[in-house]
Amino acid sequence: MNKKRGIVWFRQDLRLHDNEPFGEAIKSFDEIIPVFVFDDRILNKQQQAPFPKIFRTRLKFLIESVEALRKRLRASGMELYVRKGNTEDILYELARKYETSGVFSIRDRMPEGEWLQNNVEVKLWSLGQELHLYQGKMLFHTSDLPFPIARMPDLFSSFRKETLQFVPVRELYDAPEKKYLVPDLVPGSIPELSDFGYYSPPENAFLGGEEQGLHHLYGMMSKAEQGFEGGLEVSPWLAVGSLSARKVYHEINELSQASEKIKRDWINKLMLRDYYRLISSRDPIALFRAGGLVNEEIKNRNQNEEDLMAWIRGETGEEFIDACMKCLFHTGYLNHGKRKAVARYFLEKMELNWYLGAGYFESVLIDYDPCLNYGNWQRQAGLSFDLKGVYNFNLENIIEAEDPEGIFTEKWKNRSIDFDFLDQEMVV
Q1: Are 415 and 330 in contact (CB under 8 A)?
Q2: In a 10 Å sphere around its CB, with 0-12 CB exposed, 13-18 middle and 19+ buried, how is residue 50 labelled?
Q3: Domains, the chain, with CATH or none
Q4: 0.90 exceeded by the pTM?
Q5: pLDDT in tens, 282-306
Q6: How far apart are CA 325 and CA 320, in angstroms?
Q7: Nearest of 100, 111, 102, 120 to residue 39 by alpha carbon
Q8: CA distance 260 to 128
């Protein structure tokens, strides 16, 4: 009897918990081929600026996350097959050679993700196979919402009001625990930073992988029970899908000793992720448009490369801002308050084009999410629907809130940035 065989295409869902396409594939097939592709066209893509689309900070965290996923799968008697190249060609060849019955993955509604999905789908159709797409990045399931995406409320406050009390967050998807014999297929090596031209690794703000994400999450829950009132800081693992938003939500709801304020704040942050994703899904092109979601003429049009590089390299002359930028360069991470500070300085003091700042964040952030990154920058630039970016910038107040004793500034202000991004000219 021929065994029924299918492919699981891992993307931004690098986990085994609460993973619907992975679980549905286990239910549907006798054998599964879990695959992750380092797509050369995306990873080696250049922006219209003097920095790459994906810098070594992001790459390192991604590589760690893929390594951790392979380890988890191997512990379950399976394998993660890693390839490097064009995704649709690789999946097509696997589907053809091993006579699979379909490919299961999560859906991505952003332009780059949809382009990739469409390429895969067309190639599979030529074999008579289908691409089955599932949700896996959001807190709420879109079919549970009281409105279609096309009628998504403009304001976060309205979105929160219409969902929080009326839309249940689904329970975690419980995948069957089974072991599978996999085809006689070479696992493939996971690339190193040097394969992308980076020979000195960045510093770790956090380590990638599902186990690391869960460990950090449980640690934050324990701290909250003891009175902690700060940020949750699980965004790096949410961005690559090593943690699911639903997992985080249900852990927060299990807290019994934590303050209602911290629980409310953390859940609001999870809801804000959904808000930006849904707003962006309604009009994906507007997320990357110079005029933003509201399509208005931007105030800050300075695109001077020297000014931009002074901000990037931490050479503005403002010690706190420079310390933040050096920390960001070396680790790929800043908390929300510090990101807001460097963005406001970029916009208000340097009068640079918001799109260049968003592009640099895309390059370096280990928790890069297109909807959150470009949505937040538009908000700071006054181009979002609520125009929250329109207020006076007070650097002294920000420093008092973020670094009152100057410990952070002292740690990072004298660090050097000696890496040359590219020799190319910036295209404006």
Answers
A1: yes
A2: buried
A3: 1-135 (3.40.50.620), 137-171+211-282 (1.25.40.80), 305-412 (1.10.579.10)
A4: yes
A5: 988 999 988 888 888 776 677 788 9
A6: 9
A7: 120
A8: 53
